[in-house]
Amino acid sequence: MPRKGITGHDEWVVTEALATALVAMEQLASKHQPRAHMEDVRKLLTAKCEPGAVTLHLAQAKCRLFPDTDPLTIYEEYGLKDGQG
Questions:
Q1: Alpha helix positions (H), the chain
Q2: 26-43: per-residue pLDDT in tens?
Q3: Where are the domains of the chain?
Q4: Confidence at residue 51, expressed as pLDDT on a 0 to 100 scale
Q5: Which domain of life is it from (predicted)?
Q6: In sequence order, which residues have a C-beta less than 8 Å from that of residue 9 and are 6 or more positions away?
């Protein structure tokens, strides 16, 4: 059976990359945040996600970027309870 795309899971890879990039840019000092680009990344992420899944992807990305932070704290920060979307 042929793979879809290059990796076989291209859409997932791109979605995770967009979420991780957005969370990383949010961590920059305010004066260094590329706001226009951040809005474009958010639009791309929203277009690739199921309705309502953007916050879950962002929370998961923040958990990856900050592994020493309690994941439940991060999920709550994004309005998710019990680590669920």
A1: 10-26, 35-48, 54-65, 71-77
A2: 999 999 999 999 999 999
A3: 8-78
A4: 85
A5: Bacteria
A6: none
